[in-house]
Fold this sequence. Notes:
Order of helices and strands: HHHHHHH
Helix content: 55-70%
Number of strands: 0
Oligomer: single chain
Amino acid sequence: MSSKQSIVVDDSAQTPPLAWLVGLAAWAVPGAGHLLSGRWVRSLLLGGAVWGMFIIGFVFNGHLFAPGGVERGGAALMTIPPMIADIGCGLLYVFCWATGVGFAENARSVTFEYGNTFFMVAGLLNYLVALDAFDIAVGRKD
């Protein structure tokens, strides 16, 4: 017997199209994916946590990250990871980007770093919430 074990992947199971819709809705509007799956308590708790952290980000004068800032060279690359985290908030981020709200850096505020962190954690949590809603829609999770 070999010391290496092989992993068998079952390609016969297709992901239902509704699961992709639930996953996209969960990313776009925090809490919507669980609501579409009939998990309204989970929708309120997880969606409410993401919305709450996003709002707290504004209260603490945080700013959202976007490409094409004033940074040059390697410093411009350092804005990509927090921008990816912020994009996790879905349409909340898109709305702020379209209206120009939340992108002004307010480094004079004592709490601006906390605000930045709340924005990023809200986005990262929403990625996990969307994956959870997708798993429920696929049937991998109860």
